[in-house]
Amino acid sequence: MTILEIRIVGDPVLRTPAEDVSRFGPELARLVQDMTETMDAVSGVGLAAPQVGVGLRVFTYRVGDQYGHVVNPVLEVGGADEDEALEGCLSVPGLGYRLPRPGWARVSGADMTGAPLVIEAEGVLARCLQHETDHLDGRLYIDRLRGADKKEALRRIRDSGYDDVASEIRGSRATAVGSSFGGGTFGAAR
Ligand code: ZN
């Protein structure tokens, strides 16, 4: 297995809607394995294929003892209340913002063998399912921020020093701040 390089905001692959997987086989299995290993290596809660430069609709997730992967996910959201929690992203290192999202989510898709699969979740996993599906649509969580938070996030990313910060964090994931929420992190490891 291989630890893959995580693409950082500014990379066009993160802004390109991913394509449905049509071939289930050893290549897909290897991608899922490498993505799982990469996600675990940085203590991420989730990782979508575009984040490792692959334009396919696949993501992996690990929230507490719930973990796995989904191929070609179709997302539904709901719940009586919006859930607001701190969110971050491995591809937007060093930043984290509180973001409201629906408190319930369900994805229907397939596993790496093509067998149908459904994941229904609340809380952190529901947030993760939404965050990762966003990646497959070429969307980042910072797109969903509003007002002052959005302005600040965009300013920090556009700042000439951000690339340096990002590569520094990539080099030492262990000390990154502001990208954790709930029981784990979408962003860099603590
Ligand atoms: Zn992300």
Radius of gyration: 15 Å
- Ligands bound here? zinc ion
- Unreliable stretches, pLDDT < 50, 5 or more residues? 174-184
Tell me how many strands there are: 7
Number of helices: 4
- Span of the ends, CA to CA: 24 Å
Q: What structural category characterises the helix and strand content?
A: alpha+beta
The proportion of strand residues reads 25-35%
State mean pLDDT (0 to 100 scale). Answer: 89
Describe this structure in words.
The protein is an alpha+beta fold and 190 residues long. It has a single domain, classed as Alpha-Beta Complex (Peptide Deformylase). The protein contains four helices and seven strands. Strand 2 and strand 3 form a beta hairpin. Bound molecules: zinc ion. The site of zinc ion has 6 residues, from helix 2.
Can you give me a brief rundown of this structure?
The protein is α+β, with helices and mostly antiparallel strands and 190 residues long. Helix content is 27%, strand content 29%.
Which key phrases capture this entry?
two-stranded antiparallel sheet, 5-stranded antiparallel beta sheet, 7 strands, alpha+beta, Peptide Deformylase, 4 helices
Helix-strand layout with pairing:
Blueprint: H1 26-41, E1 46-48, E2 58-63, E3 66-87, E4 97-110, E5 116-122, H2 123-136, H3 147-158, H4 162-171, E6 180-181, E7 184-185
The structure holds zinc ion.
The site of zinc ion has 6 residues, from α2.
